[in-house]
Amino acid sequence: MTFASDPATVLPSLALLSHRVRVLPMDAASLVKMPENTILFLDARDDLATAKTLCRLIHASGLSTPIVLVLTEGGFTVVNSQWGIADVVVATASPAEVEGRLRLVSERGNAPTAAAAGSPAESTTTVEDGQIRSGDLIVDTNGYTASLHGRPIDLAYKEFELLKYLVQHPGRVFTRAQLLQEVWGYDYYGGTRTVDVHIRRLRAKLGGEYEHLIGTVRNVGYRFDPPETDKETAAAQQAAKASSAAIDADDDTPDLNTAA
Hints:
This protein is of the alpha+beta class. 38% of the residues lie in helices and 16% in strands. The protein contains 9 helices and 11 strands. Strands 4-5-6-7-8 form a 5-stranded antiparallel beta sheet. It has a 3-stranded parallel beta sheet with strand order 1-2-3, covered by helices on one side. Strand 10 (214-217) and strand 11 (221-224) form a beta hairpin. Helix 5 (157-168) crosses helix 6 (176-184) and helix 5 crosses helix 7 (193-206). It is elongated and about 60 Å long.
């Protein structure tokens, strides 16, 4: 990914190697155009701020694409582990160095992204006997039904398919075009506006308390945000009860100064 008018100037050594290279602009829309099993060289030579934003967006989208930053010498002073990158390389690196870094990255992958895949957001979603459970939400992929707090949610077929697909990939951001392709299929000729309409209907049927489960990522698309874990909810409720009991006890204590 680069803003450069001549992509060959970003990492000249790459052109001397036998790898297949695809050039994309440095924006969020390019994330959905990346093929699988890709190593992303991100041109951070002239715009470190945009490069850092894209690194964070890639992780927020749930993509496991390893990122190699292309830097100038000065860029090393600001890059750290919080960027979530697999490696860095200077723009003037030799073909042997670029090949070696590609080999190492392909073998170990992107460690920060792998860690994110096991984040608490995903661990709250479990699958058992065709039932996807996320907090009080249950999606039964065998019976094509969904329930919340044990109460069935009246969903149309495509609404159910959309919810199921999002719940199956908690925390991952999908563009409207991706959802249209995965849920409606290649033979659907309607526009992406259809996705927005179904998202609104889903949120309405989840109700005001749970509509936030389907989050919007501005300028990208939608994702499923799992609710808090049952343990967290139980702990919060227990703390609230304890606080309420303490207040009641204070109210029942006689005012000794007045009694005297």
